[in-house]
Design a protein that fits this description.
- There is one protein chain.
- The chain folds into two domains: 158 residues, UbiA prenyltransferase (Tetracycline Repressor, domain 2, Orthogonal Bundle), CATH 1.10.357; 134 residues.
- Helix content is 80%, strand content 0%.
- The model has no long low-confidence stretch (mean pLDDT 95).
- By secondary structure, the chain is mainly α.
Length: 293
């Protein structure tokens, strides 16, 4: 029984869910409005459930592809730990529960945004874009960029420039993050016939796009300082971290040796995860310092 429960938890993509939950929490905590601790916890749990719902629906729909790729072949459905119908019902149930709970604990706009995020990830990204265009990551990235906006609306009940900037940080981060992964996992995507950029446009063009999106992050990452919801501390740290990110992407772009290129791509992918987490963590710490001073 414990193993089965673990399999259902794995359907929720816990690593993705943890990042979604964290960025949502930052959006909530740095907002200018305070809500009760109980409502905050219930709302964040609802968002976590919503993220899990999107993950479960994604795994249900893509179970045939997951079985083909080394990165995903050990997921619950390909290994037979969870049946496809179970995953579908689980995903639908979590979707309904998460949006209803969030409506009860916060407000209508947050609930609508969560429902939109789940729907966009499943219908637009998973069903429509992923198997049809190499721009799947760019457009589909909007779903992964919405959690801090949801966090902000949980507290304030409205959308302003601050959560839009948080959205843009994740939105411009997403392509370089996933295309770095696609470079050293290109074989998997080719077998599964997923039109990732390295397969459709080639390695060199993918590397160029990774570098361009890394550069595009600069203005949005420093924007919190210029829009007066972060201090010089955040500006200094974010500039340093983004400069190193661009440095990694530039090294990846200029590397022509396939083996060395894969090593740098993997390093870039791993750093990108740390980078996004730390950018939001520093923004949170920066706001806590401002409040206590």
């Amino acid at each position: 029984m414990a193993l089965n429960l673990q399999s259902f938890f794995d359907l929720m993509k816990p690593r993705v869910m943890s990042l979604v939950l964290f960025t949502c929490m930052v959006g909530l905590l740095i907002s200018p409005t305070n809500i009760s601790l109980l409502n905050s916890i219930i709302s964040l749990l609802a968002v976590a459930m919503g993220s899990g719902a999107a993950g479960a629906l994604n795994m249900w729909y893509e179970s045939d592809l997951d079985a083909l790729m080394s990165r995903t072949c050990l997921r619950p459905i390909p290994t037979g730990k969870v049946k496809k119908k179970q995953a579908l019902y689980f995903g639908i149930t979590l979707t309904i529960l998460s949006t209803f709970i969030l409506y009860q604990s916060s407000n209508l706009i947050s609930s609508i945004l969560l429902a939109f995020t789940i729907g966009f990830y499943f219908f637009v990204y998973t069903i429509w874009l992923k198997r049809k265009t190499p721009q799947n990551i760019v457009i589909g990235g909007a779903a992964g960029a919405l959690p801090p906006v949801i966090g902000w609306t949980i507290a304030t009940g409205q959308i302003s420039i601050e959560p839009i900037i948080l959205f843009l940080i994740i939105f411009f981060w997403t392509p370089s993050h996933f295309w770095a992964l696609s470079l050293y996992k290109a074989g998997d995507y080719k077998i599964a016939k997923i039109p990732m950029l390295p397969i459709i446009a080639g390695v060199k063009k993918t590397k160029l796009n990774i570098l361009l999106y890394a550069l595009l992050m600069f203005p949005v990452v420093v924007a919190p300082y210029f829009f007066d919801f972060a201090s010089l501390f955040y500006l200094a740290v974010s500039l340093t971290m983004t400069t190193y990110y661009v440095y990694l992407c530039y090294n990846l772009f200029k590397e022509s040796n396939p083996k060395a290129s894969n090593i740098i791509a993997r390093k870039t992918f791993v750093y990108s995860i740390f980078y996004l987490f730390f950018i939001f963590f520093v923004l949170l710490i920066d706001n806590i310092i401002k409040i206590t001073l």
